[in-house]
Amino acid sequence: LLGQILDHWFESEPLKATLATDAVIGAMASPHTPGSGYVLLHHVMGELEGRRGAWGYVAGGMGALSQAIAQAATARGAHIFAEKAVCHVLLGRAGEAQGVVLQDGTEVRSKLVLSNASPQITFLELVPQEQLPEDFVQRIRQLDTRSPVTKINVAVDRLPSFLAAPNARDGQPLPHHQCSIHLNCEGTQLLHQAFTEAAHGHPSSRPMIELCIPSVLDPGLAPPGCHVVSLFTQYTPSLLAGGRSWDEQARNAYADTVFDCIEDYAPGFKASVIGRDILTPPDLERIFGLPGGNIFHGGMSLDQLYFARPAPSYSGYRSPVPGLYLCGSGAHPGGGVMGAAGRNAAQVAIEDFRHL
């Protein structure tokens, strides 16, 4: 349990709760849920430019990372087809992958196919079920993809000023504006209560909020004096109690709750808002192909990690379809912006390619 780990090392409840957010981030779990300690480890392992456990912003927004990868690939002869949806994987007579078919009917032939889509999309939508072992299909169908995350992007006309650290008179950013700011995290019990509400189908009445202001470090993201505020919030269930859907009323009601909370910490925040974009779990699934809205393509629980990700005996990136590889967050070692699954899958694919 994460709670036991934090109690062993720390005394301050706000510090424990702030650290606990990284143990439940993207997970429909509480700090008291068994296995939550691993999710914290997953978020602090590794390093950035020699600093262990460090994180960083991507200049230009997260899309700039995709562009950097794309440029590296095209520089080595790759051809990238954007906005070209894949309809299904093309199979040979022996059931091996031979390329993909696009929605417009175009066939793209290849000796190997690597998918960084979720296991559910890859194996339940793009491959004929009769080509896969029955127990494998059942395992993919049963993956826990519950997600508590609602992402809210906000445009504001001035920098938030927090009661705990008011802005300077000139309105220039202070050190805390360059960090991740955790709200409603005064104690782990608050996080547990927020989780419990969502587990019963109700959006948290006092949500866990991770607030960051990327435009402080990357001024090009907003006009002078204005800022972009990114809110990573939970807990919100994919399915609301009583079978209600996330309609505009439900989305705005939850966002208002989040904004009311921020207002308590930073009076004047609501008045500074120019626009907001609310992405609930169903929105994250529809727009980005995240199953259940899960940012990791599936829960980072101990029964879905290591040799069991995405399924026992298929954690080595190869799939039941010869020549088809899984290289996204649904593969070992799971989610996070680290590229480990892609790199490992590439190594396996290259090894196999040499024998074709």
Automatic annotation (TrEMBL):
Identify its protein family. Answer: Belongs to the carotenoid/retinoid oxidoreductase family.
Pfam families linked to this entry: Amino_oxidase
Q: How does it assemble?
A: Interacts with COX5B; this interaction may contribute to localize PYROXD2 to the inner face of the inner mitochondrial membrane.
Highest taxon listed in the record's lineage: Eukaryota
Give the SUPFAM superfamilies listed for this entry.
FAD/NAD(P)-binding domain (SSF51905)
Cellular component annotations (GO), alphabetically ordered: mitochondrial matrix
Where is it mainly found? Answer: mitochondrion
* Location(s), subcellular: Mitochondrion matrix
Q: Which InterPro entries match?
A: Amino_oxidase (IPR002937), FAD/NAD-bd_sf (IPR036188)
Supply the alphabetized keyword list.
Answer: FAD, Flavoprotein
What's a Gene Ontology MF term here? oxidoreductase activity
Q: Does the keyword Flavoprotein apply?
A: yes
What sequence ranges are listed for the domain Amine oxidase? 34-177
This one is known as: Pyridine nucleotide-disulfide oxidoreductase domain-containing protein 2
What is the primary gene name for this protein?
Pyroxd2
Q: What does this protein do?
A: Probable oxidoreductase that may play a role as regulator of mitochondrial function.
